[in-house]
Amino acid sequence: MDNKPTFLWGVATSSYQIEGAVAEDGRSPSIWDTFSATPGTVLRGATGAVACDHYHRMPEDVALMAELGIDVYRFSIAWPRVQPGGSGPVNPAGIAFYDRLVDELLANDITPWVTLYHWDLPQELEDAGGWPNRDTAYRFADYAGLTYDALGDRVQQWTTMNEPWCSAMLGYVVGAHAPGRQDARAGMRAVHHLLLGHGLASQVIREKAAAQDRLDGLEVGITLNLGVATPASDSAEDKAAARWEDGLSNRLYLDPLLRGEYPADIATKVAELGSPLPVQDGDLAVIAQPVDVLGINYYSSRLVRSTPVGDNGWPTPEAVDRDVERTAMGWEVTPEALTDLLLRLEREYPGPDWYITENGAAYDDQPDANGYVDDTDRTNYLRSHIDAALAARAQGVNLKGYFAWSLMDNFEWAFGYDRRFGIVRVDYETQQRTPKRSARYYADRIAAHKANEAG
Ligand code: GBH
């Protein structure tokens, strides 16, 4: 028997949320630089210009992870560092950072897990139309190839996209995220081109790995934000509202990826509403590349009821409050729904290795004079969700690992630095890192699980 652990424990971050150094070593602006510089978009006008200064403190941050005893680090690569402007040759100074990061992780016995796209699209590609423009999918595959060429000798875990729902819906429909557009038609075009980009990039990575005899151990996949939408009542209207929400946030991604077809109810309805999915011949076969790993980002679930359709004719399911705890984001704490979700995925979409690639919570941390945060709330959140995930695993779900979001407090998108998800506190004045109680809990839990597995 080899002694490879059967369950991997990790922490996750993303490039724009932690790196800072936005104008260094040839990085070009991303849509998040532009968006956050636009007044009224991000709380208190915050930007990722400095963030956690991880770009300059990377070895210290890797040492922190090593201390916590984590197996695997999920980070994202900034496309505008590696390929400024989103086209052309690789930028050696930009890729050098990730080259050093990967080496540092391996030297510390931590497996690197790369996400190629966590929302920092090169601004030049947005100027050319962004994700609603089909060409962006081909640009993405090109960038994936360049990155694989540079890191594929050491990195075997490749996630193409993080949460295409957020990119399409928050970026192009709702406008709460970069690039801040409010155009449903553009949003549905973005959905399809993000998925197409995933498929094309998966093909490129596998072809390159095959040519270099590196298929063994290679794991290619995608990460989705998934949740459970439960109807608030037995009425046909509320059931339809929950089904619509499930369709638009879960099935619209799961079905093409894992079944090779868009869910008919959603595809038909969005086309009727004037926002068709711009599918061309052969696209679905590209999108439905084998998914070795399906990453699940889980935060919360909702009870929903139907409301009258909006002006534009789109269904508008509405959340009904439950009498449960909420995090500082206002999201309900719903660990049991995570077990339900995992059981459903295994039942309805069997095949991939499932990983929880993000799970965590923002709370109103109160540091003591030393910067220590006694975050029993976040600790309880992690405990109950890890329990819920392992309960599903015990019932036969092929769940292979869990990542806490996030290693450290960071730029929380539209909420700037006002929401803290870290298990490590960051003092943004001194950049000092201080593990919170939740970090200690997580380290202990990992150690206990390993001891159990070994024995
Ligand atoms: C993730 O997005 C991101 O990948 C990460 O970068 C970010 O920092 C992190 O979450 C924390 O926000 O309506 O109450 O059911 C998560 C996005 C969060 C979107 C939960 C849907 C539903 C909340 N999702 N949300 S609720």
From TrEMBL:
Family: Belongs to the glycosyl hydrolase 1 family.
Protein name: Beta-glucosidase
Gene Ontology molecular function: beta-glucosidase activity
InterPro entries hit by this protein: GH, GH_1_N_CS, Glyco_hydro_1, Glyco_hydro_1_beta-glucosidase
Residues at which substrate binds: Q17, H118, N162, Y299, W405, E412, W413
This protein's record includes keyword Hydrolase: yes
EC numbers: 3.2.1.21
Organism from which the protein derives: Actinopolymorpha pittospori
Catalytic reactions on record: Hydrolysis of terminal, non-reducing beta-D-glucosyl residues with release of beta-D-glucose
Gene Ontology biological process terms from the UniProt entry: cellulose catabolic process
The entry's keywords: Carbohydrate metabolism, Cellulose degradation, Glycosidase, Hydrolase, Polysaccharide degradation
Keyword Hydrolase assigned: yes
Pfam families referenced in this protein's UniProt entry, alphabetically: Glyco_hydro_1
Record-level GO cellular component terms: cytosol
EC primary class: hydrolase
Active site: E163, E358
